Inverse folding.
């Protein structure tokens, strides 16, 4: 009896050890994904299907870890430092130079070149560092201008502003009704890609010089962009807390009808606005026009981490996830645009059609390994200008001095 | 022989603490010093750069400003906490009834999550505009810090007051000393060890302030609340400048050590 019990326990332990072993014979690959599909139930169902499909096709064990957008950079960085990072991760184009500069990514030129549907050169270029691709395009996002027509009408404005001058002219009229013309979130936690940078590009400026060795935002173009914002602030054209405000869908000024327009809104946010204030009051326009008509849009890409335990298996996963069938369904369900040159809008609703009009005007911004650091240095100075602590010239000059010192350190 | 056995016994009893301290405090600290002397990349590569990280930190005006901001916060937070804790401890000591209830109520913020408290305080302070004014943001953060931290200091001081011999206070009263004189010349000198402990602990806590800044201001507006601990976080987790973050962390540790030793010396010189 005792012998039988010992044998049974030994068999159990042996079985457990086998179960805890290296996993499936094809290896295990881990993907960190984010709520690209905003609806949680749909997102889980989609990724469950993807996991089952990949495992069925390849015999490889796929682990998909759905992470929140919040604290994304910090969590990924901490995981990589601890040696617990994923094999494949979703990155935005402006993050890729930083991670590539940290030597954390492996090139994926072969996967990009092997795509059955061609990608636009601008999309591929946005994911390259020194001529090598570090991301396989998965989708494209675009931002554009969204208006609350009712608030403009109540202020007696029937022609919605399409240029900076028209926005500036509308500001005092709306302010007289207690409404800021432009929603603006100036918190240092916000990405400048959705706040100041689109204005900088519309003014004809850029963040870095073409060779990337110095900052370029303290140029006359940059000053005019910041003057535009500061002028709006003085005319009551920005929310009272614009300098420190964080964006949030629940209490967003556009969603709650407390701001008349946004200059760089995503399609997902625009849908929330439509649901909150009604389609009859929501107008989705082209990006604002100044010296240039341009807005922020970025390819979302899958990158292969250099620390991947099974790089060849991870490459198979990249090919599978970015295949037209799998990525196409992701774009349909997420409302993002397909990454391919011939991709139609993700669905045929009015929001998508309107955002598709803005697609030709998108810019992914300056790809630079120090882009995020420079953003962190510039943001407090923009706050200071909006709070009236510094003039736009002073604020940008001081930020440029800090940024140039950083770039000089290499 | 007996002495040797006694030493061994002490060592055996101390061993668990020494092992835990070594593993979770001393070794990570050594690791941080090592990192501060290197350039570390997320990809796992690193190279020795000597004191380059320290040199670049001390020539960086943003880092030096964060040092001043932290000192400013400590200058507000420590005295405020001390005064609030002392006042509430004295009041609790003299209150004739419900002492346990009041003590629990006053200690409640200390047991609350600082992140949760920070979010609620942000909602409270947002309409006042205090978090949007560079001149008001540090006092606002200090008030939130005091709300969170004074309960612990109050408990320590309350225990200290309990140890003051009642006959000393009574004798002073019989001799005609006023309430203020009894507080100033009898109670306060007797509380010196407890006060020293509270000052050291709260100073260390002030230099490490991070949670409230992270939740309430993000270091803003215009870097008015950009503290040293927040800079360490920024360097390490937002910019992946690990060597620099480690150098800033080691600097923070050295400052806290220096301040603690100075305070100790000051208290010893004026017993």
């Amino acid at each position: 009896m005792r012998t039988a019990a010992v044998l049974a326990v030994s068999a159990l332990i042996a079985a457990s050890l086998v179960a805890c072993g290296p996993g499936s014979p094809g290896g295990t690959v881990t993907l960190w994904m984010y709520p690209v599909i905003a609806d949680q139930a749909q997102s889980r169902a989609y990724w469950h299907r993807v996991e089952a499909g990949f495992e069925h096709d390849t015999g490889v064990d796929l682990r998909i870890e759905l992470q929140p957008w919040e604290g994304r950079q910090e969590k990924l960085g901490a995981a990589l430092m601890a040696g617990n990072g994923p094999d494949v991760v979703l990155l935005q184009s402006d993050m890729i130079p930083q991670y590539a500069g940290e030597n954390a990514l492996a090139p994926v030129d072969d996967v990009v070149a092997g795509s059955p549907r061609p990608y636009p050169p601008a999309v591929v270029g946005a994911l390259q560092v020194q001529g090598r691709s570090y991301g396989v395009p998965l989708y494209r996002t675009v931002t554009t201008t969204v208006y609350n027509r009712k608030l403009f009408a109540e202020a007696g404005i029937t022609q919605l502003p399409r240029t900076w001058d028209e926005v500036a002219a509308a500001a005092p009229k709306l302010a007289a009704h207690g409404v800021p013309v432009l929603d603006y979130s100036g918190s240092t936690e916000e990405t400048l890609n959705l706040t100041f940078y689109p204005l900088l590009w519309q003014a004809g400026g850029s963040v870095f010089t073409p060779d990337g060795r110095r900052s370029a935002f303290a140029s006359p173009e940059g000053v005019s962009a910041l003057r535009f914002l500061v002028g709006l602030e003085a005319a009551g054209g920005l929310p009272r807390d614009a300098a420190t405000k964080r964006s949030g869908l629940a209490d967003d000024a556009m969603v709650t009808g407390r701001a008349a327009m946004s200059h760089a809104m995503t399609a997902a946010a625009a849908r929330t606005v439509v649901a909150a204030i009604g389609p009859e009051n929501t107008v989705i326009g082209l990006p604002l026009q100044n010296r240039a008509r341009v807005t922020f849009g970025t390819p979302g890409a899958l990158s292969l981490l250099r620390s991947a335990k099974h790089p060849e298996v991870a490459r198979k996963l990249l090919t599978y996830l970015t295949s037209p069938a799998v990525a196409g369904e992701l774009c349909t369900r997420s409302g993002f645009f397909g990454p391919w040159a011939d991709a139609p809008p993700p669905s045929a609703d009015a929001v998508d059609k309107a955002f598709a009009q803005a697609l030709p005007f998108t810019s992914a911004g300056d790809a630079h390994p120090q882009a995020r650091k420079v953003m962190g240095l510039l943001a407090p100075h923009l706050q200071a200008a909006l709070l009236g602590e510094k003039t736009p010239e002073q604020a940008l000059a001081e930020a440029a001095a800090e940024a140039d010192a950083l770039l000089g350190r290499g | 022989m007996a002495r040797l056995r006694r030493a061994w016994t002490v060592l055996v009893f101390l061993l668990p603490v020494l092992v835990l301290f070594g593993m979770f405090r001393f070794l990570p600290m050594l690791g941080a010093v090592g990192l501060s002397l290197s350039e570390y990349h997320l990809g796992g590569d690193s190279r020795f750069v000597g004191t380059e990280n320290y040199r670049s930190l001390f020539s960086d005006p943003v880092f030096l400003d964060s040092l001043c901001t932290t000192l400013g916060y400590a200058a507000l937070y420590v005295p405020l906490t001390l005064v609030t804790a002392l006042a509430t401890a004295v009041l609790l000591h003299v209150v004739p009834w419900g002492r346990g209830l009041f003590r629990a109520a006053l200690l409640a913020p200390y047991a609350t999550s600082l992140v949760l408290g920070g979010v609620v305080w942000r909602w409270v302070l947002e309409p006042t505009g205090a978090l949007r004014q560079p001149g008001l943001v540090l006092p606002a953060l200090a008030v939130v810090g005091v709300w969170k931290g004074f309960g612990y200091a109050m408990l320590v001081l309350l225990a200290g007051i309990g140890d003051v011999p009642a006959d000393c206070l009574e004798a002073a009263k019989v001799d005609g000393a006023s309430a203020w004189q009894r507080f100033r010349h009898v109670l306060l000198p007797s509380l010196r060890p407890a006060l020293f402990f509270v000052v050291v602990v709260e100073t260390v806590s002030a230099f490490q302030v991070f949670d409230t800044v992270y939740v309430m201001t993000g270091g803003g507006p215009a870097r008015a609340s950009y503290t040293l601990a927040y800079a360490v976080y920024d360097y390490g987790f937002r910019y992946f400048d690990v060597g620099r973050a480690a150098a800033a962390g080691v600097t923070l540790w050295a400052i806290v050590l220096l301040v603690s030793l100075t305070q100790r010396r000051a208290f010893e010189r004026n017993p």
User: Anything to note?
Assistant: The mean pLDDT of chain A is 89.
